[in-house]
Amino acid sequence: MQLIDGKSLAKKVQTTVASEVEQLKQEKNIVPGLAVILIGDDPASHSYVKMKAKACENVGFYSITHNMPDTISQDEIIATIEMMNDNPRIDGILVQLPLPKHVDTDKILEVIDPQKDVDGFHAYNVGRLVSGLDSFVACTPLGVMKMFEAYKIDLEGKDVCVVGASNIVGKPMAALLLNANATVTITHIFTKDLKAHTSKADIVVVGVGVPGLIKEDMIKDGAIVIDIGINRIKDGSLVGDVDFENVSPKCSYITPVPGGVGPMTIAMLLSNTLKAAKGRV
Ligand code: GUN
What is the pTM of this model? Predict the structure, then answer.
């Protein structure tokens, strides 16, 4: 069993981004800029946004965080996004999800200029991804693809089971895997027999937010397991969606939590923001 070390891979990506930022500054006088919109006081969202802002600082980006109360109106959020769309110093706009219940998330995401959509959530970018065209791709699934590439894991013809069909993770993950010529099964909350699908797969990618969902008897010998779950349990520790202790001995490769996919998500946000800055017109 080999651990896929997301933490050290993310560091490598950050080093590359930082040196490209330096080059962009010197050659074109461009400093990549990211605007983060954070609404309400959800502790997990605050903690993620803090990590994102810190990572931006580390690679030499300009970054601003718009912190708004959860009583804010949808129109005010839209006005802020439009301001960022028009701001030439801003290359990437990220609206931290989830949004408060009174806000229509789909509507908000559609207001973001697709050229600044570094989260890859705008329907324009999702459509381009599904069509196999160049696009901004959601950071978490993009980070998983980067891991496959770094560990030379060939996807062509592999049976891959994606557990979870969210817009943020499962659906773009499945599209990327399909574009890489894998045979993809997407399972979700209404799937009748999850084990029947996971136990046949060469690769299982899970991101649903249920601690320990994937158990030893659901994985075949030598499988590759990618755990996207980040769950804080009662004792305060972070665990994934995979019962790591019992599943890991059966795997050829597995990602740990923490230190697996999580750091890659932030690294891909930096990489997407750099891509947006390079595309400045
Ligand atoms: N909430 C949970 N994951 C994400 C993410 O990748 N991007 C944004 N904007 N919000 C999230």
Answer: 0.98
